[in-house]
Amino acid sequence: MKDKLFFILKRLGNSIITLFVLSFVIFSLLFLAPGDPARNLVGTRQATPELLESIRAQHYLDEPFLVQYARWLNGAFRLDFGTSIRAGADVATHVAPFAATTFQLVGMALFFSVIFGLSCGIIAAKNQGTLRDSFINVFALIGTSAPGFAVGLLLLYLLAFQLQLFPMFGSGTFMHLVLPAITLAFAISAMIIKITRQALLHEINTDYTTFMKARAISPIRITLAQLKNASPTILTSTGLVLAALFGSTVLVETIFSLPGLGNLLASSVTFRDVPVVQFIALIMAVIICLTSALVDILVYLLNPQAVRVSTSNLEHAGLLKGRKK
Amino acid sequence: MKKSNKFRHIIMVVLTLFLVMSMTACGNNHNQENDTNHTNNTDTLNIGVSGSISTLDINQEAGILNYYISALVGEGLVGINNNGQITAGLAQRWYTDDYITWSFIVGDNSMFSDGSPVTIDDIIWSIERAMDPLQSPGVALHFPADIQAITKVSDTQLDIVLSEPTPGFIWAVSNVAGLSVTSKAWAEHADSIGSPQDLLLGSGPFQVIEFSPGSHVILEAQDYWRESDSRSEQGNIRRIRFDFITDDATRLLAFTQGSIDFALNIPIEQSEQWEAVDGAQVDFYADRSYYGLTLDVTHPPFDNEYVRQAVAYSVNAAGIVNSVLRGNATVATAITPPEQFASAIDIEEARTLLADVTHFTYNLERAQKAFDQSGVATFETTIYYPDSFPSVGQASLVIADSLTQIGIITNVVEIPIDQWLAEIGSNQGIAWMILFATTAQPQDMVTWLLSAAGPGSNPANFADEEIARLMANVVTEPAEAGIDDLIKAHDLAQAQAIYVPVWWGQAASAWNRNIAVSDFNSYTLLSQNWVQHFTLQ
Lengths: 325, 537
Fold this sequence. Notes:
Number of helices of chain B: 16
Oligomer: heterodimer
Distance between the termini of chain B: 67 Å
Number of strands of chain B: 19
Mean pLDDT of chain B: 88
Shape of chain A: flat
Low-confidence stretches of chain A: 309-314, 316-325
Radius of gyration of chain B: 26 Å
Radius of gyration of chain A: 24 Å
Helix content of chain A: over 70%
Number of domains of chain B: 3
Shape of chain B: globular
Low-confidence stretches of chain B: 19-40
Order of helices and strands of chain A: HHHHHHHHHHHHH
Distance between the termini of chain A: 17 Å
Largest sheet of chain A: none
Number of helices of chain A: 13
Largest sheet of chain B: 9 strands, mixed
Largest interface: A-B, 70 and 72 residues
CATH topology of the largest domain in chain A: MetI-like fold
CATH superfamily of the largest domain in chain A: MetI-like
CATH class of the largest domain in chain A: Mainly Alpha
Number of strands of chain A: 0
């Protein structure tokens, strides 16, 4: 129990350090990027240097880099992420509806990908070398190689324009999210199929599977056991997939005109709306770090032996000091 | 048996999660319109735009789309008509004897969309807010810095006193420049004016009933509008929905399907595809934009007038308009396009005046001769262009090719638009200037470019006492009287090849057979109650 708690705390601690580093790196990159938010607000119109200066001062853009970062960090601790330079509104309030759209989209895409990817991966592995396996492999190949925008436009044309089953653009209802989610899920599920199939094939060829079969244990129980043992690989990969999903939303949100984080991030970067960019980056970093941590913890809880073995290997190699038993 | 139950439980949990997620997706927006049946509403005009807005408040974000919406929702003391001329807004009358003291007589029948009356206090509060650059970075620059007093004379009159005669001041209090009046009492309780939580409150013919940043805005006719009785004569549109469709292919599909009736600023290179849609009409119109080169006189060797002339002669404006822009633009002979003069003189007259302004027609022999006369050896330079304007990039390549032929080795580099904006006037040598006018004030596009007080005062960093004097006259003379000085100032600057006009832009809009559009031009969507130019069929 102590071991488990120590592992979870250590993993969460790592995530917090990663978040700090990420926030600093993103802030630095935005600071170094060329451009002037004050000029963006005024546009190609005559503006006195005093006017530009006062706008910069209002958003603390005239302060030294470290002071600006410290101010942001201090606000972030109090859950005050500042004011959007472009919208003039509280950042968290401004970003919230965009975040809700993206979370729903990513959640739905992840659900489709996991259900479809896992099922197809299991079917392919259980039917290795058959026509079914080949068909699923071909699908996975197309899924991983087809560009997202092409899939999106094709779905849009066929299902929204020709068959009029889905709305073509906008947001607000469940139906608005289905096509973008399928577009996202198309590539992601292909990855999950490949990973699941490979991991399960490994388990199928193990001695314990042969013994279970010899003892006439039901096929469902055998599959469940194989899945449990293959779960570290599948879970870890699915965690990584979530990060990829967030990265892919920009394109999909543009094609389907969804007001999500990807779209907002792209326009905010162009406008150099630093507080908004920083907040979105933080949200994404938190999700990716938390997912990664949760996956690690879940893998540990499902199979503590695997982590102990890897830890003991590291101790043997002298990479972990001071934790000798 | 136990394992099988566990498996079933897992499936149940997953399905429940999916159900909850789906319901959340639907439930979050239960009060929103069902987007799938746009065209079923017979009183709704559906407009698809390629851009997006993040706030409805022009004081904060003064983009052209914000102004289009504000023109229906809010009112200034004055507005403009479809020809760009000043017309009554909240003020029914106004007068000034000396262009210093301005008196505005406001009617007592104007109401905000919540039913409260528009008072002089609301107007004064709105003007003071608009003048404050911290509260209103988008519009504060329209107001002169020398406003001495804003006084409530009576319940129907306010006076504004300036320190110098400024005939153009009337534009500052128009809703196409600096002023959209809102309720003081309402605004003081709003956390963020123009956000989805605090939708705009104005006294225009429409009110905002829904705003989803990045997605859409819905306006609805408001019954408290002082001219609501005349609505039946003006058309049958009760609702206007703006959808922000950022991908052009998606927008074309939506237009073909009939989900949008009117598309603003369609890509000119795709106009044939739009025209091919059954029942569609595509209209090209001058959008009062200017595209040209600025040559920084403080950046050697562009401080040499012969070098600048060599550059000016190397710009094949006609070739760029015909090949790069496929004829969908006009070769510019000056900075300000003729349509910008519409509020003061006839457009044809303006066209004639502008054709006579000194400009350099493409001639590589003359370019070479000017470059040889400059005494400057072959040198290398770079033209930077903003990434949002690919046609400007193509035009840059054409210009670079000509310049390289005469010995000015020219590179072309694409940069992000915010970097381009930030670097205007920062000693670059050759730089692109792209301007879009909002007000119909004739000098609107050159107040900055021809502010000839030396480095920092204009993008070319030039100083010229005569141009400065002429522009000072333009500010203090009534618009009609100032035209000659304005044209002369253009002429002097262009004769020195400080600015090299290349083209005046055109925009294209498309509409389907569901609607009829009349007298559409670059002023239409800024004019008062512009919906009267649209009829649902």
